[in-house]
Amino acid sequence: MTKLVTFIGVLIAMSGVLFLTQYKSLPVSNERFSFENAKVEHETRLAELAELEAKRLAILNPVEEEIVEAAPVELVALTTPQLVNGHELYQKCIVCHGRAGEGRLSQNSPAIGGQHEWYIISSLKDMKEGRRVNAVMNPFLRPLNENDFKDLAAYISLLPWKGGVSK
Fold first, then answer.
1. CA-to-CA distance for 132 and 124, rounded, in angstroms?
2. Is the dihedral of CA 88, 94, 98, 101 positive or negative?
3. What angle do CA 146, 128, 85 make, to 5 degrees?
4. What's the pLDDT score for residue 19?
């Protein structure tokens, strides 16, 4: 058995030597491993990475642009003294009901913009006379008279309807 293993080992060694002699005669081609091609690919990849890094930094560190405040756009054309007075009275209501009467969920105040004048006047009268309880609005309603209610209702009814309470 040892003679057989030795014979197989010698055969493998001889075939290896023959293969190595033939290996030297194989043509050598380094086209796949061109240094210039590798250098170009590497520089292209570096350019791509630099571009991606610039985009990442632009997102992380946005350029602060100068903020120019535009003049506030009037929601209602103040064409009559009634609307001017209603606009002035409504300035106290903006805190809870919003600039356009859209209401605020955080204040638990309803959207009133675009509401009918008769409903606004009726609600304000009911709150002032105590038929409708609203402790938050009572201090604002106390100094107002019926003419102020009409002016305020005329202004609020012309505000755009948002249809609900927003955040």
1. 9
2. negative
3. 40
4. 74
Residue at 102: amino acid letter:
E
- DSSP assignment of 69-112: PPPPPPSS---SHHHHHHHHHHTTTHHHH-TTS--BTTTTB---
Please state the pTM of the whole predicted model: 0.54
Strand (E) or helix (H) holding 87: helix 81-90
Residue ranges of the chain whose pLDDT lies below 70: 21, 23-24, 65, 68, 70-73, 77, 162-167
pLDDT reported for residue 163:
60
Q: Domain limits of the chain?
A: 81-158
At residue 48, the pLDDT reads: 96
Dist. CA 36–CA 44, nearest whole Å: 12
CATH of domain 81-158: 1.10.760.10
Structure tokens at 136: 């938050």
